[in-house]
Each structure stands twice: as structure tokens, then as C-alpha cells.
């Protein structure tokens, strides 16, 4: 193409273009009028919006107002609704039933008020917390609904509260204001109809987005015409990336898309004002429809805890049966004495004679009542306080994780975030990590490094120190000087410039190579959605340093870092995009302005994997410029393209260097092709159903028979510390799978550079194009490496599972091979090396949707590394689900972009990276951080600590309550199964709530078995979580056996000590109350690994508080235990009993720990000893 440099020629061409547009428009209008009704007939119930006529728009009162409500409760429904939600916890229903039973006269073991106290306390605390949170939501809603916006009323814009805005009204928004509802743009302060918005509140992305008003409506506003028209749009939905509608205006119909709508919650930036019509208001806006929270996840350890709770329920049932059975036998044995025995006599004695009848219901009913009474007495066997304790402990753990300065990212000024508080301990049991590559392992800061233009390679990998376009770029040999104005653009980037390519661009030649290079950079500058932001600055770095001259600095805002890098590269080589409107773009080509009319844009999608733009040049020629992935581009190129082979070789070289690649191509459109495309394009654009499918079909019309121009290589550098983090995680026994949309060669290169793949690994590559091909490739690989099916692996597999790294070792008698890469289906020998599976998205289409999942699972779990390339977002979630459904292993997914959200939500633990692709991943995640390297500390340090703490916390709570209940059980057996208690009602209630709760919480938050330095130095210590060393069935049963012994010591030592005394039962109860608190606190003290000030205060303070409470309770005259502690404390026997109880109860535990740690020490214990020796 001959480059037009003359501005006059540009204006003439522009005028002729406008004439041609009018002619084409009249033809297309007739065509569209026939097609439009067909499109609408497929939309079952389109929403009709009459511009500036809200009454007609909502004549049936079917649309909601703009008032929003994010609160959960109202004043009327708060109590019933909150209670209904709280009683979804089965444990609460259990304690409600216990409290209800205690209200019945025959079963009133405790005081009726006292029995309700624990449940009421928990319900009230939760209700107050929920009520406070909801009050804050109400306050926020009130503030939001009462904000004001300018609404067109009686021909003038007047202020109106947001909550009163209705669909169909015309609203004006000024700069930096928030959008009150979803509006279709009618006009902006820019005559071209362009507006810039920030969508951070909606999708988390901080970069500016471009939105356009149609030229037809923009002119209406500037000419002061009456605003009228009709919009037909889709019904409200939560898809923020699509909008399907069309508008009738002055007898014409034209399409509306996502680029024409601004959504509630966004902010107007760099634009003085916009005017729009409301299409969705209030709860029907896309922001409100997307306000649902992420799916809640449940801790794995908590599910195990429910299993043990079931066992405790069985123990409780058995104890109640024993008491009831014993009661029945006792009553049967003494049935002839029931008239004279206390508590069971049939009648009261009055003046020596039988008086009114006593409430005796018969042996059968008394036995049944005894069973129910036993449930009430033993109720705390199921620890209701454990739920609150775990929530508080997790909250404290999260506080220290958030405050960890080692997980603070200075570059993004972001600290660690805990967005989910109920799965902290799962971080210590992760077996699989599924990671995105771009932006997660790499920085996602793209830099143009190299290019293949017309079959020739240009560029190098050595970055220049500074590339600012203040000065003409000198090359050797020096080209002709660029035109005046070349030096006025200033970029904020550092890229390398190839002097040979720069010289080619400046040669005044008409050869194919020169034309291809010109169109190549023109495509990079034009085929995108990047927004140029111009700012005026002063430069003093001219070649001769004579004068300061004004230059315009350009900053490019784009939705994709790749696009920004390509536009910056084009600008560096002299093709500077500096103006964009809805209908045209302007490019500075070596100092001359080139205005290009944009006739249509087919944006990138995951099906086509390419992007194209149709532009008209000043000389009225029309071209389609296309860029996309090589897998989708090579199939639509000309067959006889002679540079294809060279470009393909260059792409392979780029990929092997870890560069991201794109292929660039173009073609000229004839008038007939253009007219056909325009008709189909506008028909597809105005369709209310299947618009995306129709647009793809339209794109296929012009995206074919393309002329290859070249390819690009963009560098995405590894994040700092990634190789070290991956190596540490691997040593910890964690398998890392990388799921990326990049091509296979790029992914392999990045895998090698980050030490995910090692040279000694045997690479298995699966690239299948059909179900049969994939089945064959998987079967060949399994047979070659001796991989057995999962159901027979345990019995027949000759290989063994390495406990340290948990990868399948190939049997030693396997054959060796001299190559390190093996393509499935080719006959080669096997080798005894760790395996790496590399599979592409095309193969996964057949594998995940067919019956090949088990084959993939068997092969993948036998490999140390799995690398999935060219995968779609749903495929990422499918791979995570494959492991979740077929193993009990914990999974973690980490990513930074919107395409990682489904994977993050599918995994047991989701981690978001605060990266360059917005904050969608962060908002959907359970935890968020600035860099991938922090994952090492999160898992190996905080994950280990949290798992060890919470595991011990659960076991200790089971022990603490069980030892108390068993003490009561032994007492009941010695009191004729009467379900009486030696302890006061308040002592029983305070035991879990006050006496022993604080030490548990403090230890659960602060205790550390090892320092963070040791845990990072020896990653294999993380394997304790994989082996469930802190919480398992064995530990549970050992704890229960120890609990049984301690309860016996607790009950019988005072019994034997005071067997010959005249001590009353309430004094014995006071002794047991204090003794059990001291015992469980000493038990806890034996297991504390790290003593700090707060630990001392909690342990010893708990004992002091218990004594204080006992003294207060024993000082109340109305209580039966009045004054008992004052008499007991004077006796040496009292103190001796407590001492003997503590020694005898804990002695077996102490001996067992000493023997076990001496002869069978765990890795944790060995590391702890080494740590002590170092210190």
C-alpha cells in the first residue's frame, strides 16, 4: 500500500469516504429493516425502554425501582429469620432439645434458667454480631439510596435521589461521579461520543474502559433535539461482559452492545459529562445481580471433627443406657421399699401417716425419665463451646497472617488478605497446587522483545536502558531523517529496537518486504481496544540540547497487557496510536497523521482465539487486520504463502525461549465482500439472541485467505522467588500442576526456567485431535511406564509411592531411554526418571467430556508434574474437580485473572494474586496475596502452624468436656443411678464458658511447635499435615483412653481420701470443680511448645478465676454449697487431694510421651530438639 503523507489528500479521501458511507448506509438500512423483525421474533420477551418516558416504560409496574437493599434482615423478621439461620447447625438443635427436656418437671436436673444459659449465650452473641453487621448494611444502603443525580425533568436536568430514579429516565453524570444504574449512553462531552469509565467497584480492574455513545444520539444532544426513541434489550442478567440490545431512532434501527452501556457502581473518568437512559435499575442492575458471595467452603478437619462427634454421641447414648438400665434394676430390686426410700417413696409422710401421693410414675417410666435426665446431665459431652472457640482461634490466626511482614508486597502495596475464616487449617494439608502461569508465576508485565516480519527475524533479548521518543532514533547505517514531529511522543517503556528493522521501515521502497513491515506495525497499532491517554510534558533531551520543547507523553490503558505491549512496540517503531473514537482512530506514522475509519471490530474470544478489525484508509481502500494465536491463524492463511515455514520456525524458537507469541496477518476486501460483511455484521450486531455466535459466523466471512505478515514475541518475566518457592513446595511433598492458556512450547520453557520441569524428567506429551487418538495416547503412555489403574494400584503396582515427594517411582527393571522427551504413540524405551505430563486443551476437550477421565487420572497422578496448555477456564475447573472427586487430597488453586475464578472456586482452597489482570480472582478467593513466592510461607509456615493448632484444639476440647462428663458418670453410678449432681448448676455451666475457655483460645492462636526459620529450612516437615499427625482417629482413641483414666483418678482420689470423713456432698463438689479445672489446665500446659506472657496469664489466670468464682458462688446464702470452700481450704487434705489427682491423672500421659519421643520420635520432635540445641 502506498502511504498517504499529504494532509490535503487525507481530507479529500475522508470526504469521499463519508459520501460512500451514506450510500452504503441507505442500502444497508433497507436490508436491515427486513432482517430486524426476524431477530426479535426469536427473543421471547425483550424489555422495552422508551427514552425519557418512564411512565410508558413501566406502565405494567413490572420493573423495580432504583432502591437497593443489601441487608439481610428487617426490624420485623430479624428474630425469626436469624434464629432459623442459626439453627441450621445441628448442634444447636441438640442443645435446644436438651434445654426443652430440662423444663419438664420429672427431668429438671438443672435449674430451668441455668439449663438455657449456654444456648442463649451462644445465640445472643451470634445474633448481636449478625445484627451489628446488618445495621451497617442498612446504614450503607440508606446512604447509597439517598445520593442524588441529575435527571431530565420537564426539559431540564434536576437533582433526584437515586432511589427514585426509574427505567426510561434520562440521567446526566458528571466527571468522577458514580453511575446510579445501568444506562445506555446517549451522548458525552466528547463530540465523538467517547467516554472513559473505571470499573474497579464492579470487576476490580483499575484500568480505564472505553464506552461509546452512538453518533445518531450524540448529534441529537448537541443539536438540542427532543430526546425520544425505543430500546429493545435483553432481560436483566448477571453477565457484565455482554449486553444485547438495539435502538429505534428516527425510523432507523441500530445495534447496542456492551461498549454502549455503563453499569451501576462504575465511575466516570477523564470525561466532563455523559447522558444516558436507564435500562436496568435497583436490584435488576448487573452489579446487584452479581453481588452473591462466593460459594462457602468447609474445613476438611471440621468434617473429620463431625465423625468424632458422632462417636462421642454414641458414648453419650451408651452412658445414658447404662444409667437407665442401672436405674431400672435398682428400682426392681428395691420395689418393696419404695414407700420408705427417699426420693422414690410413693407417698409423703405427714404426722406419722401416709399423706399425699409422691410423683412416682412406675418403674418403666422412671427408667425412661432416668435416660432423658442422663442426656441432660451429660449434655456437654458434645462441646457446643468448640464452635465459638474455633471461630475465635481462626480469627486470631488470620490477624497474624495478615500482619506477617514477610507476605507484604511492596511493588503493589498489598498485604496478605484472609477473605475466608473457616479454612485456615486446610492450608497445612495441601497436596495439589493448581497454578495459572501468566501473572501468577510470571509478572504479567509484557515487553515486546522480538518479531518475525515477512519471514525474517528481527530483535534481540537485551533490553535497552531507556527508550523515550524525545529524539530521533539513530540506526546504523543511519536512515533518512524522520519527518518533523517524530520526536514529540514520549513513552513510558523500555524495549529493545532492532536497527535493521527500523531502517527497513524508513526506506522509501515499494517492495513486498517494506509493505509487509508497514502493514505489520499498522496492525499492531490498529487491531486493539487500547485507549491512548495524552499528557503534556517538557523535554530537554534533544539531540543538540539546545531548547526545551513540549512533548506529549502517551500512556496506554488497555484491558490486556499484551495489547498494551504491542501498541507500545508499534509506537517505538514510529506507528503511534494517539486518538481513538467510536468510529475512527488516528495514528502518527513517522510524523504524518493517518486517519483510519473503523468499520467494525471482532474482539478476541476463546473460540476463535483471534481479533480482527475492518478499517478504511484515506484512499478508500478497505483492509481487515487480524492477530491471534498461531493455532487459529495458520488454518486461515493463504495456502501458497511462501513465508509460512520461516515464520513457523521463528514461532517455535520464540516459544522455546518462553516468549508469548501472536501471528499477524491482513487482507484487502473488495466492495462486494465489504457489503456482504457489513450486512451480516449489522444483522448479527442487532440480534437479541445468539449474537456472539452470529458475530463469529460473520467474522469467519472475512477471516480467511489472509496474507501472513509476521509474528511477535513478547516476554513475560518470572516473578521473583518463583523457582525457589516451587522447589520448596515440591520438597514438601506438594504436586504442582500448571494450567495455562499459552502454547505448549512457551509453557515448557517457563516450566524449565522456574524449575518446575527439570532436565532429568521424562516428558510425556499428549496432543490428540479425537477421542480415539486421546484414548490411544493415554493407553500407550500407561503401558510404557507401567502405570496401573487406580483400583488395582494398591495391590498390583510394582512401583512404590515415595513418602517424601509422593510421586510414583518407575520400577527399577524398566528399560532405559536416551531421550528425555517422549511423544505418546511413538515406540521408545522407558526410563526410571520422574515423569512430567504435558497435555493440551484440545485433548482435554475429549478427555474431560468422555469416559477417559480415569485414564488421565491414573497417568497424571503417577507424574511429579502436570502441565496443561491452551486450556479454557472451565477446563481448569474440570481438572481441579478431577482430583477432588477421585482422591481425598486437599487441593489449592492460585491465579490472578478472571479466567482463573472457576478454578479458584472449585478448589478446596483458592488463592488470588493481586496482579495486572484486575481483581476478579482476588474477589473470588479465600486468601489473597501479592506474589506467588508468598505461597511458600503461607503453606509451610502458617499452614503448618494453623493445622497443628486447630488439630490439637479439637482433641483438647473433646478431652476437656469428656473428662468432666465421665467424672459425673462415675458419681451417678455411686448414687443409685439417680442423676443427681454434686456440682452446682452454675459450676457446670461456667466450666466450658469461663473456667477453661480462655487458655484454649490463647494456645490455639499463639502456640508454635517450630520457628518459621526451621519450617522454611526443612520443607519436608510440612508432610506432617499430609500424614494427619495432629488430628487422626488414632490420636482420638488415645485421647479418649487417657480421658477415661484421668476421670477415674479425678473421681476416686477424693473419694478414698475422704472416705472416713463427714464431708458433705457439696463440699466434695467444690473439690471436684477446682480439681478438674486445675487438671485440664495442667494437661494443656504439658503440651504447650512455646510459652509467652499471654500463655502464662491464660493458664494460671484461668485457675485463679475459677477459685474466685467458686468463692463468690459459695458466698451466696441461698445456694446449697454456701460456705463450703472456706471450710475445705483450711484442711491440708484438700490440697493433698488436688495434688494427688494432678500427679496420678497425668503420670501415664507423661510416661507415654517420654517413651514415644525417645524411641519413636516424629520429624517435628527431631526438628524441635535440633532447634533447641542451636539456641
TrEMBL record:
Cofactor section: Mg(2+)
Q: Where in the cell is it found?
A: Membrane
Its protein name is: Phospholipid-transporting ATPase
Q: Which residues form the signal peptide?
A: none
Reactions catalysed: ATP + H2O + phospholipidSide 1 = ADP + phosphate + phospholipidSide 2
Tell me which stretches of the chain form a coiled coil. Answer: none
- Give the Gene3D superfamilies listed for this entry: Calcium-transporting ATPase, cytoplasmic domain N, Calcium-transporting ATPase, cytoplasmic transduction domain A, HAD superfamily/HAD-like
Where does the P-type ATPase C-terminal domain lie? Answer: 922-1162
**Active-site residue numbers:** 436 (4-aspartylphosphate intermediate)
Q: How does it sit in the membrane?
A: Multi-pass membrane protein
Cellular-component GO terms for this entry: plasma membrane
- The source's domain of life comes to Eukaryota
| Membrane-spanning ranges | 83-101, 107-128, 310-331, 368-388, 962-983, 989-1006, 1034-1053, 1065-1084, 1091-1113, 1133-1152
Q: What residues does the P-type ATPase N-terminal domain cover?
A: 49-114
Q: What Pfam families does this protein map onto?
A: Cation_ATPase (PF13246), PhoLip_ATPase_C (PF16212), PhoLip_ATPase_N (PF16209)
Disordered: where is this region? Answer: 14-40
The Swiss-Prot or TrEMBL record describes its family as follows: Belongs to the cation transport ATPase (P-type) (TC 3.A.3) family. Type IV subfamily.
Q: Which residues bind Mg(2+)?
A: 436, 438, 896, 900
Query: Record-annotated residues binding ATP?
Result: 436-438, 563, 604, 627, 660, 740-742, 870, 876, 899-900
What EC number(s) is this enzyme filed under?
Answer: 7.6.2.1
